[in-house]
Design a protein that fits this description.
With 387 residues, the protein is α/β, with parallel strands linked by helices. It is 41% helix and 17% strand. The chain binds pyridoxal-5'-phosphate (PLP).
Length: 387
Amino acid sequence: MGVIRQQIEELRDSPIIEVFREGFHLPDVIPMWAGEPDVPTPAFICEAASKAMREGRTFYTPNRGIAPLRQALVRYHRRLYGIDMPETRVALTLSGMSAVMLVAQATVRPGDNAIAITPSWPNVMRAMQINGAEVREVMLGRGNEGWRLDLDPVFAACDERTRVIYLASPGNPTGWEIERPQAERLLEFCRARGIAILSDEVYHRLVYDRPVAFSFHQIARDDDPVFIVNSFSKAWAMTGWRLGWVAYPSYALAAFEKLIQFNTSGGAEFLQHACIAALDEGEEFARFFVERCRVAREIANARLAAMPRVTNIPSSAAFYAMFGVEGVTDTLTFCKRAVHEARIGMAPGTSFGRGAEHLVRLCFAKSPELLGEAMDRLEKFVAGYVE
Ligand SMILES: Cc1ncc(COP(=O)(O)O)c(C=O)c1O
């Protein structure tokens, strides 16, 4: 008889992983399924890690990260948002994913529910389920100007067992961004009801008309029930390093000290020196990367808009394109077949909860040449595709 909890047995694998498994071993597949660029981590970040390793920085560290890293995070938030966050409110985590899991562990109990604004990155919903919560999805609407949030259905979905509301802004896969007045209204509601906001801001640098996206840091007080998750993955091309951070309310310090202690016990010191380099010296790279994505976004939008059978859904932020294909309802099969028949890796809309089932997502953070080739392959594949 198995000993695995039923909740774990019943978790659904992310459909993105199902597609990835079809083709990660095929060297000629152009990978656009995951949210990562085709550029490696910049040399100055790698050098900071290898220098620290050579200097013998290989010992256990404080759970929330070494003091110079926490100070660098404080400086980074001050520079970006003009706020003075005490270092006691922030902790290094071993990935944005790990930060999400810590917040789920800190907030939900079996039988509680968590609201997720969808379409959304699926892992957060799974983190809530692993901790015993029911996930209630509230869909973004879609109008002529793109995705938009109506807060009333969010409020209507909450009851006395609602512990947390999850949103990502800029969003994955949508690129949707919350507007400040809406964020203020949401915060007011959550304050009054004692509900946590899990604000996922890992795409905070991937906006195309400002240096940085709106952050809940700009409106939340130190003791508001707001948990802000971030990551080194996207802004500094560090997806494989598995490093992120979390900011929590002032009263949650002891809880996060314990949760980190008993989950990961902190991160490698030499990697933390790379994080400090990224935060303190990473502006030039962050700007270069956004410009590179801007070029890619224009290519992707122009090609998808002109593609027969394809309806492109433009977005204002992050690095994803989303589109529908006339006559395609089963996007998982579409993406699996695209791997084998066209050698392109994309993510099926069924991965992202309600609201994107009939859409396909691709990450356009690639060189113009590679993206152009991917678009040629996609166009040919779509033209001949019969469900
Ligand atoms: C919305 C969102 N949040 C969090 C993450 C986690 O990032 P990581 O675990 O690489 O730090 C991702 C990664 O794709 C994401 O898209």
